[in-house]
Design brief:
The complex is a heterotrimer. In chain A, 33% of the residues lie in helices and 8% in strands. By secondary structure, chain A is mostly helical. Chain A folds into two domains: 35-97, Electron transport complex subunit B, putative Fe-S cluster (3-methyladenine DNA Glycosylase II, Chain A, domain 3), CATH 1.10.15.40; 103-168, Alpha-Beta Plaits. Chain C folds into two domains: 18-185, no CATH class; 187-341, no CATH class. In chain C, helix 4 (77-88) packs across helix 5 (95-110), helix 4 (77-88) packs parallel to helix 6 and helix 5 packs across helix 6. The longest helix of chain C has 23 residues, at 17-39. Chain C starts with 16 loop residues before the first helix and ends in a 12-residue tail after the last helix. Classes of the chains: A mainly alpha, B alpha/beta, C mainly alpha. At the A-C interface, loops of A face loops of C.
């Protein structure tokens, strides 16, 4: 009889808690992005293909399927760290021993050397190069992700990757880096 | 409970939490009247001295300008003009170090004063009341007035507030130690300031104007009270001296008890704050027509011999101010623009006074000691007690050090006003504000990056979509053009059927069947570009075909008996070939690889077999094959391609006793190879290479054929190598070698083969990875097996050299060659 | 000559860590004097031992951790820990007690957690608890007030007792604690606790010679001396008022309620406030900034919880005094308290 009571008590308790849990699961459901979207949101979207995949999204999918998280040089250590957090793995140093903090660059076309072959336009993953056949091309530097993909196809090597110029808005208070002049 | 207005009327003041009491040091500079400086040698005017956009340049190098003449005109939103502070000549327009903590260069106009100081024509206003709101705003805008207290917010935008303004707060607090510019301005120009207030009153119609002045400036308070005695809406409030009560948010709290919402502006709560200096500039602009070309600057500090306030033209270099007031620098001298709490050190004294410069502080190292070494935070939270924004600076500091940006934002880092009170009281001398600034800059950058990444993603996806659409369109075009051709095709197919029947009597059914099948397949493939569909369609077609074949077989058996006399008619054969060609061309255009090519190959093969005793037929067949191959190859993927190659091979086998045929076959093969290679992937490619070899074997007794074959091989190799990946590449290398072996008894052939090998090697090396390269090396090691010809060897050497060069260029590997 | 660059603010209040620490040490002086007066100079010996040990262990640990030694040592935080521990333990405890305690406090509790500012627990109190649990006899052998002793140990006696655990006049420590009437005497808190557990009333318990009207002889004055030191710290703004006020307030309130409800079993408010380590704990121990709460509301909660715990453990726990336990327990709760007591930032929570 005691056993019976115990079973009833435990059973009803289980039922009650089950209901509570079930309710909570419905009521407090966390709307989570699919993991690929979350990874994709962390990647820098340079679409440079340095990871070996044809763009950031495919790499995000690869990571979701268990690929290494340290294949994104443009993102640098910060991206690796965030990916490690998201995927619950140990952060690793960047593959290929790149420098920790990638220097941001933009493509610049030396316009007098450009022959207007449109090859770079075809190569640009974000359509940041404008120009027409046999017309000089130019890079919209606000849209350039610095992916380097246009440098290789250029038959006259007129594309340079220049570091992004620092402005007052992007200055990060590196007081040590300011060249101090003599009092004159 | 009194209403807020009543409490304010009664003189109630409120408290803000935190705050510090650094030594005032104001008596250094507030004992003398504001001095006027001699004209400097040159003036440097940055185009942007405020928050917002640059103006548009109106002048050029070499232009003569008059005092007060506009040098830029406002273009975009929030842009303000700058004016010539004196008459003179523009000697340069170039980026110069700016009055910013970073001192990053800013486009500036350099003026050499002519010493005459001649004003341009001014248009003062006397009838203020008659002016429209818009006209007044334009006056403020064109006078280039920006907030002179600190940030440099364009005043015309503030004055044009669309939100109702309850209180206009006039900031005469000047809570920073050392600075007395506003103090002296209030003492000497209280009338003008009140005039400026009245202009703002007309613009904004506030209920009350509250002038906040710290109680350490009794003379300024008295002067202001006297000047505004006639206007009962203006209340002068003496507030307790505490840093940073001059902060906009703190002053609003003290005078009105209101709090500006986080990330909001005072106008959101019906308050607007103006600095007394700005109000003076407004009055000058309105009543005298003078644009903002000079301001009061406190030059002070223990290294200054004559610390006092001066009227400095905008653009005067700091050096001029220091020189005029006498400056005896100490070791490790700091020159601070602004006050000791929020000012920034200058890397050079050749930085101009701008609209927001209120103080130049050149302290010695005793009065403002160099900061000591940073020690460990003991969590004493003296910083939290000092924080006027009720933040938790020490928590923020931990997060800033660990770059935990999410936490920083959760702890309201962006509400920090960087007043420096926390760093001032920190017993561990942690440069807290510096940490926050760096963290803020990082967070801002990350957000910008995020936005940029988002944008890049959008663009990338848009591009992808566009490319897909274009491809779709191309395919649709194909479809349209072929469906137009489909009818004649079908007719031709019928004719072919008939002709096939004729042929059939010759005893061979396979060609006809193939032709029919092809026609069917082509039609099936017509409407279905998707491989799956095409396969399904193909299946269907095949089944139909079988049925039909059965019928035909029966039929042709009949025909064979009746039409056996025509058996040797070459004319019919030619016609059949022409038909077949037309069919093949069309078919190849659209046919999908898997079904199409084997059939084609079979067909062409069998066709060639049939016609090989007649040169003319052979030529025709070859032309057919060429057309087929070309088209097929355009779309063919690897497998089909390989088969095509094989077909070409067998073709060559058949035709090898006739030079002309051979040439034609070679041309076919070349065309095929070229096209195929363009798209073929590595495996198929490799096979192509392999087939090229036997080809050469077959043709090696005829120089001409050999040359042709070599050309083919070259073309193939070139294209193949361009895209081939390493494995296929390696194989290409290997095949190149046996080829050479075969042809080595003919110098000419050898040369050709060598050329092929070179071309291959060059391309291969360009892209080959290290492994394949080393395999290539093995290949060249093996080459001495055929040592008879020196020339060959030399060529091989050249090849190897070319390879090595390319390899070295692209690879970091440890290849010994 | 070059201009030098620096980040604002360019001014500083000239407060610094070592001055802060030295001020706290200075504020201990009245209490130390009172201890010397009532319990003999043993406390000075303990202080010297503790200071030497603390300096050495701090230096060794810093060397092992490859940190500069002098900047960290000179901030005075190790010395403060040493002082606090030395005045917490019985003055005639054997030398190895204070040495073990100090080494533990500095090496384990402070340096192994990352040095100053990173320790989760108050080093002095963690060490005190370690000693109390490991060496209960030595740690509870408080000599009665000198005036009550049959043969008050001289300075030499005290030194030999500390170092050799005997002296020419006393067989051992226990002998030195023998009072005028030939019985050993416990601390007032201990005496009351024992009496109550033996079903005596508090009033009966306080009939003993070591009691005055309000609290224990000597202990009352020691506590008052620490109170004076604490007020000095408040005056110089080295500590905030929140923790001491909350702590003492809660303790007073609880003891008052207890006394009103059951005067027989519960000692009075003044007894609680002026016994044991109450004042030392309230002004010097609980206010240790590193291990205490950092928000003002958090400090009130933190102080109040310590006060409550002290009262509960004193009345219902196994130990006569409870400041160390209460502080350590609340140290653990600090991150939680801090998290939930963030002040409202300016401009937040107001209607836009």
């Amino acid at each position: 009889m005691t056993l019976f009571y115990a079973l009833i008590a435990l059973g009803s308790l289980a039922l009650v808690f089950g209901l509570i849990l079930g309710y909570a699961a419905v009521k407090y459901r966390v709307e989570s992005n699919p993991i690929v979207d979350q990874v994709d949101a962390i990647l820098p979207q340079t679409q440079c293909g340095q990871c070996g995949y044809p763009g950031c999204r495919p790499y995000a999918e690869a990571i979701a399927n268990g690929d290494e998280i340290n294949k994104c040089p443009p993102g640098g250590e910060a991206t690796v760290k965030k990916l490690a957090d998201l995927m619950g793995v140990e952060p690793k140093p960047l593959a290929g021993g790149e420098q920790a903090e990638p220097v941001k660059t933009v493509a610049y076309i030396r316009e007098d050397e450009c022959i207007g072959c449109t090859k770079c336009i075809q190569a640009c993953p974000v359509d940041a190069i404008v120009g027409a056949t046999r017309q000089m091309h130019t890079v919209i530097d606000d849209e350039c992700t610095g992916c380097d993909l246009c440098v290789e196809p250029c038959p006259v090597d007129c594309i340079d990757m220049l570091p992004v110029e620092q402005t007052k808005q992007t200055w990060k208070w590196q007081l040590d880096a300011i060249a101090v002049k003599q009092i004159d | 409970m009194d209403s807020l207005l009543e409490q304010i009327e009664r003189g109630t003041l409120w408290q803000f939490p935190g705050g510090v009491h650094p030594p005032q040091q104001k008596s250094l500079s507030n004992q003398q009247p504001i001095a006027r400086l001699p004209l400097p040698d040159k003036l440097v005017l940055p185009l942007k001295q405020h928050i917002g956009a640059n103006g548009q340049l109106l002048v050029d190098v070499g232009d003569k300008v008059q005092k007060g003449q506009a040098l830029t005109k406002p273009s975009a939103n929030w842009s303000l003009p700058v004016h010539a502070p004196t008459s003179g000549e523009i000697i340069d327009i170039k980026p110069m170090p700016s009055a910013h903590p970073s001192a990053l260069p800013e486009l500036s106009i350099v003026i050499a004063p002519d010493g005459n100081d001649t004003w341009c024509e001014l248009s003062p206003i006397s009838n203020l009341q008659e002016l429209s709101h818009k006209t007044l705003i334009d006056i403020l805008h064109n006078a280039g007035i920006a907030g002179m207290g600190g940030a440099g917010f364009p005043t015309y935008i503030k004055a044009d507030s669309h939100q109702p303004i309850e209180f206009l707060v006039v900031n005469g607090v000047e809570c920073e130690p050392y600075i007395t510019a506003d103090d002296l301005l209030m003492r000497e120009h209280a009338q003008e300031i009140v005039q400026g207030i009245e202009v703002m009153q007309q613009l904004l119609k506030p209920q009350r104007v509250l002038i906040g002045i710290e109680d350490n400036k009794p003379q300024a308070i008295a002067a202001m009270e006297q000047a505004c005695a006639h206007n009962s809406a203006i209340l002068v409030r003496s507030i307790p001296t505490k840093y940073p009560s001059g902060g906009e948010k703190q002053l609003i709290r003290v005078l009105t008890s209101k709090e500006v919402p986080s990330a909001g502006i005072p106008a959101d709560i019906g308050v607007l704050v103006q600095n007394v200096g700005t109000l003076f500039a407004i009055s000058e602009a309105v009543y005298k027509g003078k644009p903002l070309i000079e301001r009061v600057v406190t030059v002070t500090g223990n290294t200054i011999n004559k610390p006092q306030n001066v009227w400095a033209l905008i653009g005067t270099e700091i050096k001029h101010l220091l020189d005029c007031q006498g400056f005896t620098p100490v070791p490790e001298q700091r020159v601070v623009m602004g006050g000791p709490m929020m000012g920034f050190t200058l890397p050079t004294v050749r930085i101009p006074v701008v609209k927001t410069t209120n103080c130049i502080l050149a302290p010695d190292n005793q009065e403002l000691a160099e900061p000591g070494d940073e020690k460990a935070c003991i969590r004493c939270s003296a910083c939290a007690d000092a924080c006027p924004q009720t933040l938790l600076p020490q928590q923020l500091q931990w997060f800033a050090k660990s770059k935990d940006y999410d936490k920083l934002e959760a702890y309201n880092l962006f509400d920090c006003i960087e007043c420096g009170a926390c760093s001032y009281v920190c017993p561990s001398e942690i440069p807290l504000v510096q940490y926050y600034r760096v963290a803020k800059a990082e967070i801002r950058e990350q957000k910008l990056d995020q936005i940029k990444a988002e944008r890049a993603k959008e663009r990338f996806e848009a591009r992808k979509e566009r490319l897909e659409r274009e491809q779709q369109e191309r395919q649709n075009k194909h479809k349209r053009s072929t469906s137009r051709a489909a009818k004649p095709d079908a007719e031709k197919a019928k004719v072919a059927d008939a002709l096939a029947r004729v042929k059939q009597k010759q005893g061979d059914q396979s060609a006809v069947q193939a032709a029919i099948e092809r026609a069917k397949a082509k039609k099936a493939a017509d409407g279905s570009l998707e491989p799956d569909n095409s396969e399904v369609a193909l299946e269907r077609a095949r089944r139909k075909e079988q049925a039909r074949q059965y019928k035909e077989q029966k039929h042709s058996e009949d025909a064979a008996s009746s039409e056996s006399s025509n058996e040797t008619s070459s004319k019919k054969d030619a016609v059949a070939a022409a038909i077949a060609r037309a069919k093949a061309k069309k078919a190849a255009q659209q046919s999908e690889q898997q079904n199409e090519q084997p059939q084609q190959a079979q067909a062409s093969e069998s066709e060639t077999k049939k016609s090989d005793d007649e040169p003319r037929k052979a030529a025709v067949a070859a032309a057919i094959a060429r057309a087929k191959a070309k088209k097929a190859a355009q779309q063919a993927e690897q497998q089909g391609e390989t088969q095509a190659e094989q077909a070409a091979e067998s073709e060559t086998n058949k035709t090898d006793d006739d030079p002309r045929k051979a040439a034609v076959a070679a041309a076919i093969a070349r065309a095929k190879a070229k096209k195929a290679a363009q798209q073929a992937e590595q495996q198929g490619e490799t096979r192509a290479e392999q087939t090229a070899e036997p080809e050469t074997n077959k043709t090696d007794d005829d120089p001409r054929k050999a040359a042709v074959a070599a050309a083919i091989a070259r073309a193939k190799a070139k294209k193949a190598a361009q895209q081939a990946e390493q494995q296929g590449e390696t194989q290409a290398e290997q095949t190149a070698e046996p080829e050479t072996n075969k042809t080595d008894d003919d110098p000419r052939k050898a040369a050709v083969a060598a050329a092929i090998a070179r071309a291959k090697a060059k391309k291969a090396a360009q892209q080959a990875e290290q492994q394949s390269a080393s395999q290539g090396e093995h290949g060249s090691d093996a080459e001495p097996q055929t040592p008879e010809q020196k020339r060959q060897a030399a060529i091989k050497a050249a090849v190897a050299k070319a390879k090595a060069k390319k390899q070295a260029k692209e690879q970091e590997g440890n290849d010994p060659s | 000559m070059k201009l030098s660059m620096a980040s604002s603010p360019h001014n500083h209040s000239h407060k610094n860590l070592s001055r802060l620490m030295l001020t706290v040490i200075a504020a201990c002086i009245p209490g130390i004097i009172a201890q010397c007066y009532f319990f003999g100079f043993g406390v000075i010996v303990q202080l010297i031992l503790a200071l030497i040990t603390a300096s050495l262990s701090e230096a060794v640990m810093l060397r092992i951790r490859k940190r500069p030694v002098w900047p960290a040592l000179s901030d005075g935080s190790a010395w403060l820990t040493a002082v606090l521990l030395a005045i917490s333990i019985p003055p005639l405890a054997p030398w190895w007690v204070i040495v073990i305690g100090t080494v533990f406090a500095i090496a384990m509790v402070k340096q192994l957690y990352g040095g100053l500012g990173f320790n989760l627990f108050n080093p002095a109190m963690a060490a005190y608890v370690l000693l109390l649990i490991s060496f209960p006899v030595q740690m509870t052998s408080w000599t009665p007030v000198s005036s009550l002793l049959e043969l008050p140990p001289s300075l030499v006696d005290q030194i030999t007792l500390i170092f050799f655990e005997y002296s020419t006049h006393h067989k051992d420590l226990l002998g030195a604690m023998t009072s005028v009437d030939g019985t050993t005497m416990a601390t007032p808190l201990d005496a009351v606790k024992t009496a109550v557990s033996q079903n005596l009333t508090v009033t009966e318990a306080m009939m003993g010679k070591q009691f005055t009207t309000y609290a224990g002889i000597g202990w009352m004055w020691v506590n008052l001396a620490f109170l004076a030191g604490g007020l000095f710290l408040l005056k110089t703004k080295v500590i905030n008022w929140h923790i001491p006020v909350a702590l003492l307030g809660t303790l007073a309130l609880c003891s008052a309620i207890g006394f009103i409800l059951a005067p027989g079993n519960h000692a009075g408010t003044l007894f609680h406030l002026l016994s044991g380590a109450t004042m030392l704990g309230a002004f010097f121990i609980a206010t240790d900034p590193v291990s205490a709460s950092t928000t003002n509301r958090g400090r009130l909660i933190y102080g109040a919880c310590i006060g409550l715990l002290v009262y509960l453990i004193r009345n219902y726990g196994g130990y006569p005094d409870a400041v160390a336990f209460a502080v350590l327990i609340m140290n653990m709760a600090v991150p939680l308290i801090d998290h939930y007591t963030q002040p409202r930032t300016y401009g937040h929570g107001v209607a836009k």
